[in-house]
Description:
Layout: H1 3-13, E1 16-19, E2 31-39, E3 53-62, E4 66-68, H2 70-74, H3 81-94, E5 100-102, E6 105-115, H4 119-133, E7 138-142, H5 148-173, H6 186-201, H7 206-215, H8 219-228
Parallel strand pairs: 2-7
Antiparallel strand pairs: 1-7, 2-3, 3-6, 4-5
Helix pairs in contact: 6-7
Amino acid sequence: MNLDDERIEYAVSHTEILRPPRQTLSTFGATNIYYYLVTEPSYRDFGEGEGETVVREGRVLAERPRVVTPAYLVNMEGFGEHAKRYLEMVTREHGPHAPGIFYGYRNEPKEMNIVSSDMSTVVRKLEEEIDKEGGPLTTIIKGVDELWDVSLLKFIFDMTSYSLGSNVIELGRRGLLDVDRSGIPLDARRSIERLFSLVKKGELEPSALKMELERWGLFEEYEDRFLWLFR
C-alpha cells in the first residue's frame, strides 16, 4: 500500500457523521443536503491552532436515482480502463441487462471559516442553529482537514448505502426495475420520454437526448422521432 492509499484510509476511518440528515435520499426527485464539515486545522501538527476549528459549508445535490444496467454503464464517459474491465466482469457475472441503481452527485462548496473555539463547542452551536431552523436535510460531518473531500465522499457513500434499501423497494413497487425484451428498464424508458419532452420545450439540448439514447443502444429505435424534433 502506498502513502496516498494510507492517507485516504486514515481519512475514511477518522470520518464521523456527527449529525446525519433526518431523511433518506428521495427516490423520485433530487435531494439537496446542506453540510457542515468540521476539522481540526492541519497546522495543529506544527504546534499551532490549539482551540481552533475549521468549518466548511456547502451543498451536496443528489440527482434522482436512476435505474441502469451494466451495458449502459459501459457506454458512459469518464470511466478508465480498470473501471471498464470491472464492468465487463459484472456483465459476465450478472448479464448485460441486470438492473441496478445509479446515484449522481454534485458538490457545491460555499465557504470555509476558522473558528476560535474547540470542536465540541462548534458542533454544539451548529446543532442548536440547525434545531432552530428545523432543517431535516442538514448534516454535520467530522473529517480530516487535508483530505476533507475524502471525508465528504465517505459521507456520500454512507448516505447512498443508507438510502438504497428504501429506494429499491419504492422503485420495485412501481415496476421501474422491470426490464423489457430489449433489456431496457421501465425507469429508463420513462426517463427517455421526459428527455424528449424537455427537448421539445427547448429546456434541454438535443445532444443530451442523443447521448442518452446511444448509451442505451436505442438511437436507431428512436431515430425517426428524434429527427422529427428538428422539423
